[in-house]
Amino acid sequence: MPESRVHSRRHLLLGGAAVSTGALLTACTSNEPKDQKPATNAGPAADDKPGAPVTIGFAGPQADHGWLNAINENAKRRAEKYSDVTLEITEGSNDTAAQIGQVQTLINKRVDVLVVLPADGKALTQVGLQAMKAGIPVVNLDRIFASPQAYRCWIGGDNYGMGLNAGRFIGEKLKDKKDATVVELAGMDSLELTRQRTQGFDDALKNYPNIRKVARQAAEFTVESGQAKMAQLLQAQSKFDALWNHDDDQGVGALRAIAQAGRKGFLMVGGAGAKSAMDAIKADDGVLKATVLYPPTMAASAIDLARALGQKKGVGGMAELEIPASITLYSAVVTKENVDDYLPTGFS
């Protein structure tokens, strides 16, 4: 799963899914925008005419997770929308040394721009610095390099915001229930992103004194781990009112464990935005009532930004001549009421 930087004042907080050089996403002005529909990866704006040819090198980790596979697919599909873009894509790897070698190969090919989702942001910082020193601008995707000198632009998700919005959703659902209890199925505790999601969730619950978190289990972002750890939670907790699950892939396993135990009487909120989760939310015949987005369409946005850099353009909808230094995507909450809007962004 992705690991990103905690949001900061230097980040531009954006709502929706993808940034186009023809139309910048509208910034969110509230936690629950009512009239604005999310952008989809439908392609560049009609008035975004072809420009100078740009060769973009794309290096991501191994697609061994639904979200990571969606990252690669979004990048490929977005590049195909542009007649002036050539995409040089590497074979994804979770081996740091292998990915460094792949990025160095792209540097040696003298691509115009690099888009890199590092397997380990800290470990790949040096190769980012190498590219920038060679005059190749880098779009750092999601997992952040250790130095801002290693990239021209960072774009990624808001892990703290995921937990915050999950906590707010659950809090509003349970605000009138006396002595409400919640449990948490987290991701991998070795990752900063997991700690950020938990912190956001805990901070949101501070606004609801009637709600207590009574248990937490960390899984590993897999179906198998989700099922095993959820089974442990269910055995330990005979009753609770809500479950916050960090990841929709491990949520598939969690739902299996819940079904096997025959448990009902609580609501579940997932994370990331898998199509299977959105389908379950739309059907509304189980415990899963919402999922908080961590949109893989950020890879499509990264291609847009790389194209703009290669063509020395700014981003449409902004007054500045240059693209932003940092963009944080908004963690929208998908519910039965808005799921049809977001289904096109769901990943398998």
TrEMBL record:
Domain Periplasmic binding protein: 56-312
Keyword vocabulary terms for this entry: Signal
Main subcellular location: other
PROSITE patterns according to UniProt: PROKAR_LIPOPROTEIN (PS51257), TAT (PS51318)
GO cellular component: cell envelope
Pfam annotation, one family: Peripla_BP_4
Entry's localization field: Cell envelope
Keyword Signal among record annotations: yes
Statement: the UniProt record of this protein carries the keyword Secreted: no
Classification via InterPro entries: Peripla_BP_I (IPR028082), SBP_2_dom (IPR025997), TAT_signal (IPR006311)
Region (Disordered): 29-53
GO molecular function per UniProt: carbohydrate binding
Gene3D superfamilies (UniProt xref): 3.40.50.2300
Family indicated by similarity: Belongs to the bacterial solute-binding protein 2 family.
Designated name of the protein: Sugar ABC transporter substrate-binding protein
Species this protein is from: Streptomyces populi
Lineage, opening ranks: Bacteria, Bacillati, Actinomycetota, Actinomycetes, Kitasatosporales
